[in-house]
Amino acid sequence: MTEIPKTHPRYLSLTMRERLVEGVKLGVTAMQGLIAHGRGEAFDYILGEKTRDFAIKAERAAVAMMLLARHPVISVNGNVAVLVPEDIARLSKAVGARVEVNVFHYTPERVERIKKYLEQFDVEVLAACDAVLEGLESARRIVDSRGILIADVVLVPLEDGDRCEILKKHGKKVIAIDLNPLSRTSRMADVTIVDNIVRAIPRMVEMADEMKNWGMKRLEEIVAEYDNSEVLAEAVREIKRYLEKVADEL
Ligand code: PTJ
After folding, report:
1. pLDDT per position as a tens digit, 29-43
2. How far is the CA of 11 from the centre of ligand 1 (A)?
């Protein structure tokens, strides 16, 4: 792994790239994951690389939804596994969610490698691949009968867009984490967190630690008051505002 000096102005961003390249070498991250990350980086850049208010609102609604769920599941792919393994472990414990490996670029060996990778970080992982999500043609249809198949709330970070709609048809609530507020997944999800996963999940853990002591009524109110279209519109407006400010300063 290339040693990135901590003083480098783009230390965090370059470290993320290194993690993903390592992930590819280990056979955990798909090559396509590097391209997907590049798209995410571009959106993060035009959002000023920080967590905005609309993302905090979505993160709070997502945590409330997961705390209220009977059977919440966090779906993990090859990018998520290498970017935030420790935080996935913490979030799963904080909200009482199962963690399931679910990938677009599927091979049984790759699923097993992701499972083993996450287990090093003390994550209990579902990856039986013993059930099928009807109505979906991509490999994402292959799920675990103890996980996504029976989940009522599914967190799908860095999704590729084909599955969100089907999960909803199966009656599940979907929470997406996607820096692109224009993506199909972003528009289809019940809650879309337009934030970098490396900032979003740690913040959700902090929120969950506080919110798990709140009563059901308070959590239900947060979910009921949440409006995803409004949050997405705010994300697009924020990009516009930010770019105008940068243009004015040039
Ligand atoms: O591991 P696999 O086989 O399941 O494949 C995973 C990838 C990510 C390759 C697959 O799901 C894919 O192709 O995804 P897409 O269609 O490129 O969509 C990924 C979305 O995640 C894009 O809209 C990106 O903007 C967004 N994204 C990328 N990196 C981040 C991100 N969002 C939040 N945080 C990031 N770090």
Report:
1. 999 999 999 999 999
2. 21
> Domain for residue 163, yes or no?
yes
Alpha carbon nearest to ligand 1 atom 28, residue: 40
Residue 232 in contact with residue 61, Cβ under 8 Å? no
Query: How far apart are alpha carbons 183 and 185 in whole angstroms?
Result: 5
Q: Of 10-14, 50-54, 73-77, 193-197, where does mean pLDDT reach its minimum?
A: 10-14
Of 36, 128, 145, the C-alpha closest to 82 is: 36
* 58 assigned to some structural domain: yes
Residues 107-146 have pLDDT tens digits of 999 999 999 999 999 999 999 999 999 999 999 999 999 9
Distance 225 CA to ligand 1 centre (A): 28
Number of neighbours of residue 219 by Cβ within 10 angstroms? 20
User: What pLDDT shows up at residue 2?
Assistant: 80
Residue nearest to atom 17 of ligand 1 (CA): 36
Cα 35 to averaged position of ligand 1 atoms, centre (Å) = 8
Instruction: Print the domain residue range for 127.
Output: 53-239
CA 47, distance to chain mean position in Å, is 17
Average pLDDT over residues 173-184: 97
Q: What is the mean pLDDT of the chain?
A: 96
pLDDT at residue 140, as a whole number: 94
Per-residue tokens: 246: 């940068």
DSSP classification of residue 3: P
> Residues with beta carbon inside 6 Å of ligand 1?
30, 32-33, 36-37, 39-40, 43, 77-79, 103-105, 158-161, 177-180, 183, 196-197
Residue 62 maps to a domain: yes
